[in-house]
Structures are given as structure tokens and as C-alpha cells.
Automatic annotation (TrEMBL):
Keywords tagged on the record: 2Fe-2S, Iron, Iron-sulfur, Metal-binding, Pyridoxal phosphate, Transferase
Family annotation (Pfam families): Aminotran_5 (PF00266)
Protein name per its UniProtKB record: cysteine desulfurase
SUPFAM superfamilies reported in the protein's UniProt record: PLP-dependent transferases
UniProt cross-references to InterPro entries, sorted A to Z: Aminotrans_V_dom, Aminotrans_V_PyrdxlP_BS, Cysteine_dSase, PyrdxlP-dep_Trfase, PyrdxlP-dep_Trfase_major, PyrdxlP-dep_Trfase_small
Entry keyword Thylakoid: no
Protein family: Belongs to the class-V pyridoxal-phosphate-dependent aminotransferase family. NifS/IscS subfamily.
Cofactors that this protein relies on: pyridoxal 5'-phosphate
Amino acid sequence: MIYLDYAATTPISAEIAQKMLQFMTLEGCFANPASRSHMLGWQAEQAVEHARAQVADLIKADARELVWTSGATEANNLAILGLAAQFPQKRHLITSQIEHKAVLDPCKVLQQQGYQVTYLAPDAQGRIQTQQVLEALREDTLLVSLMYVNNELGSLNPIADISAHLASHPAHFHVDAAQAVGKFPLDLQALQGIDLLSISAHKMYGPKGVGALFVRRGLRLQAQMHGGGHERGMRSGTLATHQLVGMGEAAQLAHTCYQEDHAHAYRLRQTLLEILSDLHDWQVNGADENHQAPHIVSLTFAGIDAEALLMAVPELALSTGSACNSATLDPSYVLTAIGLTRQQALASIRLSMGRYTKVQEIQIAGEQLKAAVKRLRGS
């Protein structure tokens, strides 16, 4: 099996898994990090805080500005719902039509409570422009929530430019950076307009079930989970020491090798597209390479049913879009929002590559895809 679904989740290294194991068994430091009455609890807390510092260092933030969560979904919910509960007098939000469901669904919840939400339309490349955000701002705008990298297209939003314009505006800026952290350099000391930023461990070679929310110093959110007042009163619950240790180790590794990872992903992308270049009637969806994350490739093959194509290449682990929508047969709302027809959207697949993808694997995958498309077209 050739794994090409890194945007859905990434594997962790054996070294990180072994490090995590040291905080799970009786022989290791398995204690509750909130148990401050004995040495094992102190050691677990120390490991948690070391991991917090590792993640903070990756995004150039103060470790005290990180709130642990169960992943980016919870981080997004805490950012949006927690902010709305903290500032109930402002009842307007701005987001885009192609955000992850973990942003769109909390916005819908607030709409049901009487909030107004402006859904910005992406351009044909899947990007939101700064001017769109500025034109949508109102006096009662509480929050602008936009993703850094689109999880289906790989398109990059101009986050730094939007941040610069919002730095002097009272509206808060939340960035879903699940597909960006560990893959692009982030400096939240420089990006002062960003107040909230969501991180997922399992998108950057860490374990599933853990993430973090950056909360700019001075900003408070109303907790959405209650039961102990952990994480500065913003997120209660016993911390999963072993998962946090894994996330911290993954962050440290990403900090040292993201340039190498980026170059590797770009090479893989170019190899794939070159192999497919002699096919007819197909296209790459998303932005040009200057505004594109190289590890995500969205492809549309005219006249092909994407589900049939996936079945025709059983040795390739691919997807037809975001994992959060895999249970539905409806076309991707991301693809239709950028102008693809329903038929085109249903003829689209997503490949996502990563640190452990080999060039030879991409060559094999490209040839198998090309052969399958020709076979399904009867040519």
C-alpha cells in the first residue's frame, strides 16, 4: 500500500512512539500531571510543560499562550464559541465558504443563536483576498476566522497580510493552522494581528487526539468544558501526558526539518504532475505554486467517477476530499465553491504526500493513476 493521504493524518516515527511509551507504563512516568502531592506528578507536569515549550517554540509564541486541547476541532470550537461567550455584545463573524467543518459548524451554532455570519466566497484558486475581509468588517464584528492552508486544495490564504490589517481593528483574528503548522514557518511574535491559532498534532507527525489553541496574552475565552479549571480556566480535563510529549517531540522535529520537508514535497508534486502530463482532459485545482502548499494536490479527471477511480487503484491510499466529509456522497463543497460543476467535483481526487513518501512511490502511483484513468475512459 502506498500512503498518499497525509492531509488526513500523518504517521509518527518509532522514536516518538517510544518516547510516548515512557509516559504510559508502570515503569515510566504515568502519573497525572495535576497531581502535585508527589514526585511522579511533578515529573509528569514537567514533561507536559516541556512539550508546551517545544510547540510554542515552533510557532514563536510564549508557552503560557498555549491551551492544550484534544485536537484542532476542539481548538476551533473553543476559539469561536469561547470568544462569543466571552464577548456577547458583538454578534457578527466573518469566515469563508471553504473552511473546515470544525469552523463552519460552530458558526452555524452561533447563527442559530441569532449571530450574523458573513461567508466570504473564494476565488477560482481557493483563496480569500485581504480586501474581501476588510470590506466585510463591521463595528460589531467579533471574529474573523480563516484557515492558513486549505485542507482539500492546499491553497494558501494571505494570512500575514490579513493579520497586518487586523492588528489595529477591534475584531479578533482566528487562524485554523492545522495544515500549516510544521510545514510553514510561523512567527506569532511578528504576526500580532493573530489572536487565536489552532494546531493539530496528528497533521505534523504527532499522535492523534491532541492539539493546542494559541490564545494571545490578555485575551480570555469562556471555557466550553468544565470540571477543574485546568489550562488557565479555559479547558478542563486530565492532560494526556504521553500524547502531549509526542506532540512536543513532533514539533521539535518539524522545527529542524520543515525546509527539507517542503523541498521534498515540492519534488514529489512535480514528479507526479510530470507523469500525468500526457493525459488529456484533466486539471489541477488550487493556486499556483507561489500560493500553494506542495504536499496537497487536488486533481479532476474529466469523465471519470472519482469513487470508481479509487477502486481501480486499490494499492493507493487516496481520498476524494476531506476526511471529515468521507461519509457523504455529495460533491465537495470546497470544489463547488471555487467554480467546479457537480460533475467535475465528483471526478476529483486528493493526493497528499509527506516526509516518508518516496519518489519511487510517487512514480508508481502516477503510472497507476494514469493507467486507471485511461482504462476507465476506454482508451
